[in-house]
């Protein structure tokens, strides 16, 4: 019993001493819950605020100024105009990369896919000059697989004739 | 004879063409007022710095602090918010104000922001690399008493070819312990632009 009373006395005395020390740490009129805020603002996350010290936060707005808007539009038009040749060049390159073959042979000859000479020759021309056909008279058939135009067949025939004679 | 006249004429024309197209650059005094676009420029920054420096150095907060604490106050520069319609860098006039405060020895200014982080990093580096007698210790920095914060605002009124632009730069000095604003300074600039 004596021991229990002793322990209780020691515990109470110790607790009161600590509590007193805690109270002593507080400044006059200081909020006792200051540690909650202190912990919040001493976290490393809050460093982002201190890192911005001495700098300018650009939080600008767009003023209503018709003359300035007109100038900006003009400048934008100029930029686009300057970019246009480049865009056209890019478009041409893309067209060359994405070549489409199409059927154009209405003459019946030279359409033999088993004939390696003609098909190879024409395929070569189709690959190279496909843009011409895409824009020209052949647009109706552009989705078809192969193109054997009369013009190129005539050309190949001419070349063949030259080789033979 | 004719040929020589033609050659001379071409030479003169060529020289005049080349000289007229050449870019001309001249050095001018930094306090010269040159307004080109009608936007915020160095003259505005300088005027703001001059007026705000006068205001901050003649404020009662300085004498009050010295009377109360018996020492010079320590100031840290905080964030300046540019809420105007233009890109304005406040550092141009804030540095002038800092320079005036330090130069006239009215208050002490401590480093903040990224530069302070750099200093701490250097101090950290010294802990392992510098000789013991020259190592700078952590935890001995001077704490600021006041923080200088500010904002830049503008109002634009434009119609056809005329424009009135109004800038207001506000700086505030706040007690870090009590959050009490001890000084507010401002610079107002109004400008009429005719296009």
Description:
The complex is a heterodimer of chains A (165) and B (195). Chain A has helices at residues 2-25, 34-41, 47-51, 66-97, 116-128, 130-135, 150-164, and one strand spanning 56-58. Chain A is an all-alpha fold and 165 residues long. By secondary structure, chain B is α/β, with parallel strands linked by helices. Chain B is built from five helices and five strands; from the N terminus they run H-H-H-E-H-E-H-E-E-E. Chain B has a five-stranded mixed beta sheet with strand order 2-1-3-4-5, with helices on one face. In chain B, a hairpin with a 2-residue loop joins strand 3 and strand 4. In chain B, helix 2 (42-57) packs parallel to helix 4. The longest helix of chain B is centred in the N-terminal third of the chain and has 20 residues, at 2-21. The relative contact order of chain B is 0.15. The interface between A and B is medium-sized, with 19 and 31 residues. Strand 1 (56-58) of chain A pairs parallel with strand 1 of chain B, so a sheet runs across the interface.
The gist of it:
Chain A is an all-alpha fold and 165 residues long.
Uncertain parts of chain B: none
SS content category of chain B: alpha/beta
Most strands sheet of chain B: 5 strands, mixed
For the largest beta-sheet of chain A, the strand count, sense and barrel status come to: none
Relative helix content of chain B: 25-40%
Largest protein-protein interface: A-B, 19 and 31 residues
- Helical segment tally of chain B? 5
Note poorly predicted spans of chain A.
Answer: 113-122, 124-145
Number of strands of chain B: 5
The tally of strands of chain A reads 1
Report strand order across the widest sheet of chain B: 2-1-3-4-5
The outline of chain A comes out as elongated
Determine the strand fraction of chain A and express it as a percent band: under 5%
Helix share, percent of chain A: 55-70%
Q: C-alpha Rg of chain B, in Å? A: 26 Å
Number of helices of chain A: 7
User: Which whole number gives the mean pLDDT of chain B?
Assistant: 93
């Amino acid at each position: 019993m004596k021991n229990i009373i002793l322990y209780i006395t020691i515990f109470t005395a110790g607790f009161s001493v600590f509590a007193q020390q805690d109270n002593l740490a507080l400044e006059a009129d200081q909020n006792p819950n200051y540690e909650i805020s202190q912990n919040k603002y001493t976290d490393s996350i809050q460093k982002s605020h201190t890192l911005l010290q001495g700098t300018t936060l650009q939080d600008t707005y767009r003023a209503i100024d018709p003359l300035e808007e007109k100038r900006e539009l003009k400048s934008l038009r100029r930029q686009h105009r300057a970019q246009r040749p480049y865009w056209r060049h890019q478009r041409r390159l893309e067209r060359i990369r994405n070549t489409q073959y199409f059927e154009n042979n209405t003459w019946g000859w030279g359409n033999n896919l088993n004939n390696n000479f003609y098909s190879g020759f024409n395929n070569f021309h189709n690959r190279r000059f496909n843009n011409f056909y895409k824009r020209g008279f052949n647009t109706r058939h552009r989705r078809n697989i192969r193109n054997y135009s009369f013009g190129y067949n005539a050309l190949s025939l001419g070349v063949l004739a030259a080789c033979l004679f | 004879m004719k040929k020589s006249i033609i050659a001379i004429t071409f030479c003169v024309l060529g020289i005049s063409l080349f000289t007229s197209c050449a870019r001309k650059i001249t050095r001018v005094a930094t306090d010269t007022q040159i307004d080109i676009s009608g936007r915020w420029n160095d003259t505005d920054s300088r005027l703001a710095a001059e007026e705000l420096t006068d205001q901050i150095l003649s404020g009662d907060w300085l004498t009050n602090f010295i009377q109360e604490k018996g020492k010079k106050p320590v100031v840290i520069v905080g964030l300046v918010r540019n809420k105007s319609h233009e890109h304005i860098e406040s550092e141009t006039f804030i540095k002038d104000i800092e320079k005036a405060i330090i130069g006239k020895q009215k208050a002490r200014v401590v480093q903040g922001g990224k530069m302070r982080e750099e200093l701490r990093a250097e101090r950290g580096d010294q802990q392992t690399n510098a000789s013991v007698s020259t190592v700078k210790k952590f935890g001995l920095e001077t704490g600021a008493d006041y923080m200088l914060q500010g904002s830049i605002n503008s109002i634009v009124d434009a119609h056809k070819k005329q424009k009135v632009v109004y800038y207001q730069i506000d700086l505030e000095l706040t007690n870090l312990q009590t959050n009490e604003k001890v000084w507010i300074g401002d610079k107002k600039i109004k400008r009429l632009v005719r296009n």
